[in-house]
């Protein structure tokens, strides 16, 4: 019986599975996103996230440990040089799985796994969102009043500037007439 054994063997023997996950992790590090099945993506997520966490401390030991998993010098260099710097302040959750539908041949559920900090489209959307969506009650009214005060102040400040500009324009028109 397999009580409490949560590891997905992906229908492969241990050597094949380790090699496959190593190659997929190297491809993910190199290309920042890859298309695969959902089961493989979930297994890859468990495989690569500890390696990214390990890459935050750039020491000889951590490089050797990561190299023992990845087996590609270029991937290790890329991980420690570029990716570790970009995810330094992130406490975890370095990858994202986006489901893309089903494969035509065998109807397997497909997805795209990507590094979170490298998706420019998602980063732009999070920056452009306005405020929070909570219902607050009195706190919202206070911000509305403050906003109204700021608008009134800007109108009051802008009004004298407009008057001086109109006086200048009138002076210019009078000079043109002469």
TrEMBL record:
GO cellular component: cytosolic large ribosomal subunit
Regions of compositional bias (Basic and acidic residues) in chain numbering: 152-178
UniProt-annotated stretches for the region Disordered: 126-178
GO molecular function: structural constituent of ribosome
Keywords: Ribonucleoprotein, Ribosomal protein
Swiss-Prot/TrEMBL GO biological process terms: translation
Start-end of Low complexity biased regions: 140-149
Keyword Nuclease: no
Compositional bias annotation for Basic residues: 130-139
PROSITE patterns in the cross-refs: RIBOSOMAL_L17 (PS01167)
Pfam family, one: Ribosomal_L17
UniProt keyword annotation of Transmembrane helix present: no
Top-rank taxon: Bacteria
Annotated family: Belongs to the bacterial ribosomal protein bL17 family.
Record note on quaternary structure: Part of the 50S ribosomal subunit. Contacts protein L32.
HAMAP family per the UniProt record, alphabetical: Ribosomal_bL17
Protein name per the record: Large ribosomal subunit protein bL17
């Amino acid at each position: 019986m397999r009580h409490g054994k949560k590891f997905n063997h992906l229908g492969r023997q241990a050597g094949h599975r380790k090699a496959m996950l190593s190659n997929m992790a190297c491809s993910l590090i190199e290309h920042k996103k890859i298309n695969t099945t959902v089961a493989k993506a979930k297994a890859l997520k468990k495989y690569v996230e500890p390696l990214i966490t390990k890459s935050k401390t750039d020491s000889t030991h951590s490089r050797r440990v990561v190299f023992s998993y990845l087996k590609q010098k270029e991937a290790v260099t890329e991980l420690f040089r570029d990716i570790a710097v970009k995810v330094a302040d992130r406490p975890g959750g370095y990858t994202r799985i986006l489901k893309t539908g089903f494969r035509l041949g065998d109807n397997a559920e497909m997805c795209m796994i990507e590094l979170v900090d490298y998706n420019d489209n998602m980063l732009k959307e999070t920056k452009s969102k306005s405020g929070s969506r909570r219902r607050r009650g009195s706190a919202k009214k206070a911000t509305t009043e403050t906003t109204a005060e700021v608008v009134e102040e800007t109108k009051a400040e802008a009004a004298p500037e407009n008057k001086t500009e109109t006086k200048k324009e009138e002076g210019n028109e009078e000079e043109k007439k002469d």
